[in-house]
Amino acid sequence: MSATAAKAVDALQGAFGGAILSTHEFRGEQTVVVAKDRIVEILRHCRDALDFDFLTDISSVDNLGSEPRFEMVYELYAMTTSQTHLRVKCTVAEDESMPTVTGIWPTADWHEREIYDMMGITFDGHPDLRRILMWDGYPFYPLRKDFPLAGRPSEMPDVAFTDTAPLAGGPFVTSPSSASTVHREPRSREMP
Amino acid sequence: MATTAAASPPFAYDSKIEGNIIFTRLDSAINWMRKNSLWPMPMGLACCAIELMATGASRFDISRFGAEVMRFSPRQSDVMIVAGTVTYKMALAVKRIWDQMPEPKWCIAMGACASSGGMYRSYAVLQGIDHLLPVDIYVSGCPPRPEALLEGLMRLQAKIEGEHSALAQFSLSAPTAEEAME
Running DSSP on this structure, what letter comes out for residue B163? Predict the structure, then answer.
């Protein structure tokens, strides 16, 4: 299984060379980090020439403090031929936007809307870039690292509102402990 | 005796009417009718709705308490059972449906999420439906078992029994504290 994915990685390196910034394998999972300005071209090549006909998911990572800040992760799957997975990553800065891949896989439409909603990354050429989970007009991007877990108050009269959630000493975390199961229960860091 | 009365009755006596007269207070009569015919608005929003459905099904049988007529129109409902996590996106829709229900109306917050936000201390979840509408009964549990919801329903019936329904119905002034004590 991973052999064919490794072949796909080799084929990508042969076809795009310098645009493939790095590759690595972890427990049979192949990951390719590519240059952002050629991402659409590379992903189209993955679908047309390498048979990755199914886009499983798109996700994004907020690496707050490092530059560029965000990372896009495309999970590809060759459903009809070799049943192999391939992960394609690229980085995007806070003031940049990503090109859309809805022209390659139509399912990218809602994935990109969710990333726009939660992380605030915009997609050039997207047919319908609206928020998908929160409402139009919500002022924040909740999955960014600098957004507090308890939320921030917001108000749109007659449409929606949010408030700060009382965390009561939380978030409650589990600490490794060799003591009793009582000590291993999730608890606030502020509690003794 | 019966045969002579039937032949020439000395005075009219209708046993059907005389036997069915009940003396009571108006409050008691109205409350008795209300509490035994609570039509729920099933506001099922999460896993509590599954327990709500179990409560309505044959094993637990909410119709034993007269609340089996689940209405999906707020205009026909008496009690809104908020069963599940109320997100901020859903919150004003719940409020709007509540506003469409005619008086008198009651609200049961079923489960931890509807009562307090539950384990969802986050940007997306309303921290208890009582931020938006008046709640009569809180049912604890995550989710509550059907017996717990039925207990909540019986508590609501007990609460309705104590209401001054007639005064509210005929727009009289509410009793003072001294009158209520009598």
Answer: S
